[in-house]
Design goal:
The complex is a heterotrimer of chains A (about 325), B (about 210) and C (about 160). By secondary structure, chain B is an all-alpha fold. Helix content of chain B is about 70%, strand content about 0%. The radius of gyration of chain B is 31 Å and the shape is elongated. Chain C is built from five helices and five strands, in the order ααβαββαββα. The termini of chain C are far apart. The chains are: A mainly alpha (about 325), B mainly alpha (about 210), C alpha+beta (about 160). Chains A and B meet through α1, α4, α5 and α11 of A and α2, α3 and α7 of B.
């Protein structure tokens, strides 16, 4: 029996390491990609000094952050102050455990994967709240409160959007959700669940505190919000957590609405084969959309965010869940097999 | 060193059970209310692990999602906003302690009666029933909820809805001089009614005069 | 009714789409960025950069220590001491400009009756230790000697507008 335990632990450690390193590297280049995309939309060049075309810029940034001093504010709660960025990062990485990269390429193929992901992404708010409270700064506390209210509100819309997926696929297992969308672009859930798709993605943007929903940071009014007192490596952890969350939201949107690793084409040619490349490409589209939105839209006012979440998204999702249920029961469209 | 899976499981159980009880004790004994709330979060987490051990993964994750992810966030939110003063031991009234001990003792007796007499025949004492691989307790929970327990479930849902509406009604009040903006009204404007675009003949400024001179 | 139609229209996200298309259009546009150390934009002859003290063609320094620049300097960056030289003319013994205080407004240049203090178009300079930010008379004269040709040229170009 000891062999089984060893096998479990060693093999899983390798997988976990691979995923974590992959995510960290992706985050590093995501920051580069973000700066380039936003620069291009501003008709600028973006970072182009460190390395060829600025490709080494992320490493320069990381080195800078890691060598900087971590400053503890006066009267800050040191323990909570330090543990907050760790919570943010841990929850962001924990969600990756159930993400299927390809058929069978998943660390933990659990039945309640969808709920698990929802739980993990909603736990990220603890890092924000604890950071805001432990910093002993009014800006940080304001940012934390905003973030808490925003995430709790959008989690409901997000959860309802996922209920739509659940109704459509009939399972909470992420791999099975992807398998239910086999067979070309018409079988993807984006078509029957179009409003839910938009709501899920927008709620995801809100949940990760990214523009135009970044009132938790809100440079113009509360300086930098919850992480205003953080510097050096502690700030780097927040940064890493935020970007890891962005990737996971994009990956989940690809899995639940765009058929994960399946090709949009049908037939027997090489282009129609399911492959991890498709999954990565679909994820990249949503990551690009994050930056596209950030470059295009001004920040929402706080009450407008609340209005959008409670008065627009939640009613629409509830209505559409019923529509989906009716479609499924009467077998409307090619999606229900 | 040989660790059999059963022993391993028991080890995990005792470690997390200790943490559960310990953090639950800390919730009521810690002076700082923020710490108290955070210990409650820890307690929920450990309970979730215990539930995972009895293969109730859906319930465990739902516990984390609902209680940790939403309810405790609001708790923390309120605790941070309220700025509760830290109570000193001398401020606690002795009579409260006595009443508390009395209630706790009553609860203990009730629980012992429940487990000792009522449920003694129903709890499998030596071995948990293990389901085969591929068994989805999500489906099982859903089936039970929507067939067997559909009326209690729906009634509970309606009661909760009523509670939400009532809470909003009780706290919703319009103050005089409140300058709150109505986002819906602000969004619902027509640019054509607000901005008038006038075409004007270009005026001759100083810049142009200069240009003609040189 | 129109309100309802508007609500439905808002659900199409049309306005957000318009905004996104605009930024996407600019994404592909030619970038304006000047790759600075390799590429440089042309400078106006009026550019106000590092200061310099000029000399007459015969090598005599122009400055007559009238202290108009010191008086006009809004940042009080200029300090001047003067004395009588052996030949009886009034000259500065100390002419210092604190470049950390200086706001590069060019008033000193405007006020100078003998075109002695000028601002050159040098803007790429730095200091490596504390105190080096105060330019002494010798340094200013040296800059003037070094860039006299350039200074004369820009003055010539700008002369007809003065």
């Amino acid at each position: 029996m000891i062999e089984m335990l060893e096998f479990l632990i060693l093999d899983n450690l390798v997988y976990i390491l691979a995923i974590v390193l992959g995510v960290i590297l992706t985050v590093a280049y995501l920051t580069y990609f973000e700066r380039k995309v936003i620069a291009f939309m501003h008709v600028r060049m973006g970072p182009n000094r460190v390395g060829p075309r600025g490709l080494l810029q992320p490493f320069a940034d990381v080195l800078k952050l890691l060598t900087k001093e971590i400053i503890f504010p006066k009267n800050a709660n040191k323990f909570l102050f330090l543990i907050a960025p760790i919570i943010t990062l841990a929850t962001a990485f924990a969600a990756w455990a159930v993400v299927p990269f390809d058929d069978g390429w998943v660390l933990a193929d659990i039945n309640a994967g969808l709920v698990y992901v929802l739980a993990m992404t909603s736990l990220g708010v603890y890092g924000v709240i604890i950071a805001g409270w432990a910093s002993n700064s009014k800006y940080a506390l304001l940012g934390a409160l905003r973030s808490a209210a925003q995430i709790v509100s959008y989690e409901i819309a997000m959860g309802f959007a996922l209920v739509g997926v659940l109704v459509a696929a009939g399972t909470l297992n992420l791999s099975d959700i992807v398998r239910a969308q086999e067979g070309g672009i018409v079988n993807w859930y984006i078509w029957p669940l179009l409003p839910l798709f938009f709501i899920y993605y927008i709620s995801g943007v809100a949940e990760t505190n990214r523009a135009p929903f970044d009132v938790a940071e809100g440079e113009s009014e509360i300086v930098a919000g919850f992480h205003v007192e953080y510097s050096g490596a502690a700030f780097a952890l927040f940064f890493l957590g935020e970007y890891a969350n962005m990737i996971i939201i994009s990956a989940l949107t690809a899995i639940m609405f765009l058929g994960g690793w399946y090709s949009p084409f049908t037939g027997d040619s090489w282009i129609a084969q399911p492959n991890i490349i498709w999954f990565l490409a679909k994820t990249s589209i949503f990551l690009y959309a994050y930056f596209w939105l950030r470059a295009s839209l001004p920040r929402y006012r706080y009450d407008q965010i609340m209005r959008l979440g409670w008065k627009v998204f939640i009613p629409i999702t509830i209505v559409w869940i019923m529509v989906v249920a009716v479609m499924k029961v009467y077998n409307v469209g090619p999606w229900w097999n | 060193m040989m660790i059999s899976p059963e022993l391993f499981q028991q080890l995990i159980f005792y470690v997390f059970a200790t943490f559960t009880v310990g953090s639950a004790m800390a919730v009521i004994s810690v002076k700082n209310t923020i710490y108290s709330a955070l210990f409650l979060v820890l307690c929920f987490f450990n309970t979730a692990v215990l539930w995972l051990l009895i293969e109730a993964e859906f319930l465990a994750i739902t516990l984390v999602l609902v209680y940790v992810g939403a309810v405790m966030v609001l708790f923390l939110f309120v605790v941070m906003m309220l700025d509760v003063k830290q109570a000193k031991a001398s401020q606690l009234k002795q009579s409260y302690t006595k009443a508390a001990i009395l209630i706790a003792a009553a609860m203990l007796v009730e629980l012992m009666m429940l487990f000792g007499y009522k449920l003694s025949g129903q709890i499998p004492t030596n071995e948990l029933i293990r389901q085969e691989q591929g068994y989805s307790n999500v489906q099982e929970v859903g089936m039970e909820l929507f067939t067997h327990y559909v009326y209690p479930f729906e009634i509970a849902a309606v009661v909760l809805l009523v509670a939400i509406v009532a809470a909003i009604m009780l706290t919703l009040r319009k103050r005089d001089g409140n300058k709150q903006m109505d986002a819906a009204k602000q969004i619902n404007i027509n640019p054509a009614e607000r901005v008038r675009i006038v075409s004007m003949k270009a005026e001759k400024g100083h810049g142009q005069d200069r240009g003609e001179e040189s | 009714m129109t309100k309802f139609v508007k609500y439905l229209k808002s659900l199409t996200l049309n306005e957000i789409r318009k905004g996104l298309m605009l930024t996407q259009k600019y994404f592909f546009k030619r970038k304006f960025t000047v790759r600075y150390p390799e590429e440089k934009t042309p400078k106006s002859p009026r550019f106000r950069g590092l200061h310099a003290l000029r000399r007459y063609p015969n090598g005599e320094e122009r400055c007559i220590a009238c202290k108009l620049c010191e008086a006009v300097c809004p940042a009080a960056a200029i300090t001047i001491d003067s004395d009588v030289r052996e030949d009886g003319s009034r000259r500065t013994t100390k002419y210092e400009i604190d470049l950390f205080k200086c706001i590069y407004c060019g008033f000193c240049e405007e006020s100078c009756p003998v075109d002695s203090i000028v601002e050159t178009d040098i803007h790429e300079y730095h200091f490596e230790s504390m105190g080096k930010n105060v330019m002494t008379k010798e340094q200013l004269l040296a800059i003037g000697d070094m860039y006299e040709e350039q200074i004369a040229k820009t003055k010539q170009q700008d002369a007809k507008y003065r």
